[in-house]
Design brief:
Blueprint (H helix, E strand, L loop, with lengths): L3 H9 L10 E2 L8 H9 L6 H22 L7 E4 L2 E7 L2 E7 L2 E6 L2 E10 L10 H14 L3 E8 L5 E7 L2 H20 L6 H4 L5 H4 L4 H7 L7
Parallel strand pairs: 1-4, 6-7
Antiparallel strand pairs: 2-5, 3-4, 5-6, 7-8
Helix pairs in contact: 2-5, 4-5
The structure holds iron/sulfur cluster.
Length: 224
């Protein structure tokens, strides 16, 4: 019998990518700082099930791009779906290509749309703070002041959308997070287990590859 799980795994397998301290990725700005820190200090191959989840998210993104560029939706103009990103701060650089962002025009207004797939949208009443932070950073770099976070339920393609207005305070916070990560890395100091402390970030622990190290370094009973 053909093992399709294996075939998919082989197809999606990625090389282990060592990250260089001083170069950061825009998609990381809302990530738990401790998780990002580990990814620089002790890089690991992404778990094969997680890679499949990411790929499912990519397929949803491609589907939305098709929906937005379709002639059946003439009121929307798709301007771009792969946005290059670069911001230089004192001794670090944040750069990369933003894949999950779409630029659209509606009624002569340009929106940046961040697409997020979710297993259920029933309980999504507000957008996640880390998703808002990411979008704000992208809006800042693209000089676009209107954003949308679009959540799509994987099994049903039902959607929920939230409008996000440009906020310089949130952008400053996002940039400060990169500076903080950089400081922790240069000083070789482990940051607090942020996603275990901040309720809104708890979901990030679920698929974290560094859970074991994190709990070993900071057992539950000594959480700050
Ligand atoms: S387990 Fe949670 S708190 Fe710890 S590094 Fe991973 S995401 Fe961060």
């Amino acid at each position: 019998m053909i093992d399709f799980d294996d075939l998919i795994h082989n197809f999606l397998k990625r090389e282990l990518n060592e990250k260089k301290i001083g170069k950061y990725y825009p998609s990381e700005c809302g990530n738990c700082i401790r998780k990002s820190w580990y990814s620089y200090k002790t890089p690991k191959e992404t778990d094969k099930d997680l890679i499949k989840i990411f790929q499912a998210g990519n397929l949803i993104h491609e589907f939305i791009v098709d929906v937005l560029k379709s002639e059946k939706n003439p009121e929307i103009t798709l301007i771009g779906s792969e946005v290059p990103f670069k911001i230089e701060l004192d001794e670090l650089i944040v750069s990369g290509r933003i894949d999950n962002i779409i630029k659209v025009e509606l009624d002569n207004k340009i929106f940046l749309v961040e697409v997020k797939s979710a297993s259920s949208i029933n309980f999504v009443d507000v957008p996640s703070e880390s998703h808002v932070m990411q979008l704000q950073l992208y809006m800042h770099q693209q000089n676009i002041y209107d954003g949308l976070i679009l959540y799509i339920e994987k099994n049903t393609l039902k959607t929920k959308v939230f409008e996000v207005k440009y906020s310089f305070n949130i952008i400053e916070e996002a940039l400060n997070r990169f500076k903080a990560l950089h400081r922790y890395l240069v000083l070789d100091e482990l940051p607090d287990p942020e996603a275990r402390i901040e309720r809104d970030m708890n979901w990030q622990c679920k698929n974290c590859s560094y859970k074991e190290e994190c709990y070993k370094a900071t057992p539950k009973n000594i959480l700050p």
